[in-house]
Design goal:
disordered C terminus; mainly alpha; 3 strands
Length: 319
C-alpha cells in the first residue's frame, strides 16, 4: 500500500487544475455574450439553441471548478481514499444540464417550425457566431489535453461538451447560411432539432461514464492487460496471484490482489517480492493505490478466498 504522503503529493499536483476550470468559465461567459448577440441580430432559433448550449457550458464549468477544488482536498479520517470521486458528480451534473438544454432547444425549434419567422442581419450574426466557435475550439483543445494528461474526467467532460458545441455551431452556421441563400425558413428549426438530438447523445455519454465511475467499474481493458502482462512475468518465477480487483475514482486507480509465494520463504523474502510487485504496478499506473495480501502458495486456504464478496468465511486461529 502506498504511503499517505504519496496520495498527498498527488492531490497537491492536481490543485492547479482549477485554473483550467476558470479558463472554461471565462470562455463560456464570452461565448454566451457573442452567441446571444448573434441570435438577437438574426432572430434565428438555431443560433438561439447555440447560445443556450453555451449557457450550459458556463454552469458546467462552474460545477467543474467546485468539484476539482473538492477533489484536490487531501485524504482524512472520514475519507481515507480522498475526494477524487467528486469529479464524477461534475460530469454527471453537466450531462443532466445538457439534457435540459436539449429539451429547451427542441421545444423552441418545434414552435418555430409551426410558425416560421424570417431572419435578419444574417451576415453579421454569422460572423459573431464564428468568433464564438473559434474561442470554444481553442478552449476545448486545451482542456482535453490537460484532462487526458491528468486523468481528470471533469476537464475531459467539459472539453467534450465544448467540442460538441463547436460542431453544433458549425451545423447551425451552415444551416442559417442556407436559409439566408435559399429562403427556406423551415431549415432553421429543422437544424435546431438536429442540434438537440446531437446534444442528447452527448448527455447520454457523459452520464453513462459518470455512472460507471460511481459504481466502481474496473479499469479499462488496455490497463488491465498491462497489469496481467506484469503478473505473468512473476508467475514464470513461481509466484501465483488471485483476487485481482481494480477500480477508478476520478484521477486515481485502485488495485488490490493476493500474492501467493512459496511457504518456505521468510517473511522478509515475501515482503520484498510484494513491494517489488507494488512498485512495478505503480510504474504502469502512476496514480495507483495498490493493496496486496501475502499468502503461502501451498496452503489450500489461500485459494479458498477468491470470491470473498460472494462467499465470506471466517478463519479461527488458536492461541
Amino acid at each position: 500500500m502506498p504511503e499517505a504522503g504519496g496520495m498527498t503529493k498527488d492531490v497537491v499536483s492536481r490543485a492547479p487544475l482549477t485554473r483550467y476550470a476558470w479558463l472554461s468559465i471565462g470562455a463560456a461567459t464570452l461565448t454566451i455574450a457573442l452567441k446571444g448577440a448573434a441570435w438577437w441580430l438574426t432572430g434565428s432559433v438555431g443560433l438561439l439553441s447555440d447560445a443556450i448550449e453555451s449557457f450550459v457550458n458556463l454552469v458546467g464549468a462552474l460545477m467543474a471548478l467546485w468539484m476539482l477544488t473538492l477533489a484536490a482536498l487531501p485524504a482524512d479520517e472520514e475519507h481515507a481514499y480522498g475526494y477524487s470521486k467528486a469529479e464524477y458528480f461534475s460530469s454527471a451534473f453537466e450531462g443532466f444540464l445538457i439534457l435540459l438544454a436539449a429539451i429547451s432547444i427542441g421545444y423552441a425549434a418545434l414552435v418555430r417550425l409551426v410558425d416560421p419567422q424570417p431572419l435578419a442581419e444574417v451576415g453579421v450574426g454569422l460572423m459573431v457566431s464564428l468568433l464564438a466557435s473559434a474561442i470554444n475550439l481553442a478552449t476545448a483543445r486545451i482542456l482535453l489535453r490537460v484532462g487526458r494528461e491528468h486523468d481528470s474526467i471533469s476537464l475531459e467532460a467539459d472539453a467534450q461538451h465544448l467540442m460538441t458545441d463547436v460542431w453544433t455551431s458549425a451545423g447551425v452556421i451552415v444551416g442559417v447560411a442556407l436559409v439566408w441563400l435559399s429562403g427556406w425558413l423551415w431549415l432553421d428549426p429543422t437544424i435546431a432539432l438536429v442540434v438537440a438530438a446531437n446534444i442528447l447523445w452527448t448527455a447520454f455519454q457523459l452520464m453513462r461514464r459518470s455512472l460507471s465511475g460511481l459504481l466502481d467499474a474496473s479499469l479499462p481493458a488496455p490497463e488491465l492487460a498491462r497489469i496481467e502482462a506484469l503478473l505473468a512475468r512473476h508467475r514464470a518465477q513461481g509466484i501465483a496471484f488471485h483476487a485481482l480487483r481494480t477500480r477508478r475514482a476520478g484521477s486515481r486507480s485502485f488495485v488490490s490482489l493476493h500474492v501467493l509465494v512459496p511457504g518456505q520463504w521468510t517473511v522478509q523474502q515475501g515482503h520484498d517480492r510484494v513491494e517489488r510487485i507494488e512498485d512495478e504496478i505503480r510504474e504502469l499506473l502512476p496514480r495507483a493505490h495498490v493493496t496486496t495480501h501475502l499468502e503461502p502458495l501451498e496452503d489450500p486456504l489461500s485459494m479458498s478466498d477468491q470470491d470473498l464478496e460472494r462467499r465470506p468465511r471466517s478463519r479461527i486461529v488458536s492461541p
